[in-house]
Design a protein that fits this description.
Length: 508
Amino acid sequence: MFTYSGIIMAMTMVAYLALVIGLGVYYSKKNSNVDDFYLGGRQLGPLVTAMSAEASDMSSWLLMGLPGVAYLSGVADAGWTAIGLAVGTYVNWFVVSKRLRIYSHKINAITIPDFFKNRYHDEKNILLGISAVVIIVFFVPYTASGFAACGKLFSSLFGMNYESAMIICAACIMVYTLLGGFLAASTSDFIQSIVMTIALIAILVFGIFSAGGWGNVVSNAQSMAGYLSLTQIYDPESGTASAYGLLTIVSTLAWGLGYFGMPHILLRFMAIEDEERLKLSRRIASVWVVISMTVAIVIGIVGNALSTEGVVDVLEGSDSETIIVRITSVLSALGPVPAIIAGIVIAGILASTMSTSDSQLLAASSSFSQNLCRGVFNIKMSEKTALMVARISVLGISVVAVFLASNPDSSVFQIVSFAWAGFGASFGPVMLCALFWKRSNRQGAVAGMLTGGIMIFVWKFLVRPLGGLLDIYELLPAFLCALAAIIIVSLITPAPDKEIIEEFESVQ
């Protein structure tokens, strides 16, 4: 089952997994209460804050999905997606991060549902309950998609049984998250961002060299109609180009709206030790995102040239997402050192998935143990008991996610796209209004959250299939409808109490 190079790659990846589990054991001693477990005691430094946020954001699609799209159809689809995400990343750090850190600290919120409840003084826990359910509904299958991606990676590389590979990866993620909580997840995400960066650079350099140089890569891309255009998209089946219109561009850019509602990213803003250092974090995160996505797209273009040169097979459909894995296989056959580098590259793909799954596990478990059990159902427990329940929640959600991921034919990236839209529309408008509009009230927030979540399903399954002008990414119309619902309902219902207004104005 294993070749010589495969054994070296496997040993490299095992060493990496041992490292992240070791982090969990180390940080398990630093968790004395649920605030430590879910928010790390608000003691993250600017570098870890920036890189862990972006690593938890850039799941396996950075090293699989984005290069795959560029490989097949050229620059337009992948490029506009990257532009939307880059702009969304910067705006989220620039507009949301500092005010959310200060506001959440002032009202003693350690989760996103906590923030919504305390911001609007929701004594009935309606916002707490709805937001906790939204997180569980979208994050459990999202986590399952990460487990599935890990299983497929090991299965395709080493010929392992899919379910066994998936369960091993899920167990590793669960162990270090269960033991170390937020600090372990954030520190491992920081390391994973470094591994992802090494993987991207190594594959880019080796790919250009194997394709015969940058000139050959450019010549190959220019030979395909519309491949390098931002207003045309290449069709590999017909060999022709079709228009990539304004409506499609706007729809693709809408991916950037999702950042305002991503719990696992927003939690990093809440957890930094000093809000004044968020400016440094913003710069680090923005630069890394732009560079990493650019390199990922270029790798897809290089991969196409490698197929033309016969270095790797011609890939069709979803197989294009394995282009980095195919290049890695070629690299690993060149000797022990290249095999170690190949192992690091594969660990980078694994890291990109793990860095998202651990954050999702924490967010989903906090919604169950902290928001539903202690908040909505008012179950009294000591800090020690609450910490134990938090860890049991991580275990329970992991088991459910493993069950959902048991089907090897499950579509990883469709789930990711849908969950991204769900969080962006359900939480994004509410978060922006909660932070920046003092006239918004509890009724408006409830209306916006429900409208955003419902519209995702309505547009995805009922409206978008009609095609034409309605065939746009569901996040955009759902986000706009949710924002309109917040504004309208807030204005036709009583203004917030004086205490809420004063609290809002005191957050500078």
